[in-house]
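Crash report, auto-generated. Payload:
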Amino acid sequence: GQNIDQPTEMTATEGAIVQINCTYQTSGFNGLFWYQQHAGEAPTFLSYNVLDGLEEKGRFSSFLSRSKGYSYLLLKELQMKDSASYLCAVLDSNYQLIWGAGTKLIIKP
Amino acid sequence: GAVVSQHPSWVICKSGTSVKIECRSLDFQATTMFWYRQFPKQSLMLMATSNEGSKATYEQGVEKDKFLINHASLTLSTLTVTSAHPEDSSFYICSARDGTGDTEAFFGQGTRLTVV
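Recovered output after restart:
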């Protein structure tokens, strides 16, 4: 079966750095996405990785290791508005998006 | 990025009635649209995938006669919840992609359905 694992909840302090991990086992791989979802709203796109390595975009970076079936989302200089759920999703061999359950990130002052 | 417009944002309906939710891609042709349902504090659950001009493919456990999906054009897909019941109350989100391949999915704003 297809499976994506990420922590259920994480807590971090404003101004700090947090890393949200995602591991996956899917039938094929055509890319990995990270989305941010605030409560009651639709997800918004953060990043896309298809090759190994680190993609940096402002305060957010995403890393991928295809051989390990592993990715992480790194958030720097945390702000209170970063409190949200972060969803990891993998595009499988049929180009279907397989979703993780999401990681609820709580930012404390 | 591309824009997907979903309407209505929220709707309250009586048990037994039907509700139609529209999803439009405003500046691109969405060859594939996806409909998701999300219960509070739970992950997105794919309900069905629709390709323009063909019948939708429903995920296991989703009743196709209850959740009618129409994807008649490259910019519009509709989800109709027929004979809605309180357990159908949920957050429904559509998503669209431009062609097949490694393109990101653009999401509508979501529709919060409450059945009373």
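Post-recovery validation: Chain A has a mean pLDDT of 92.
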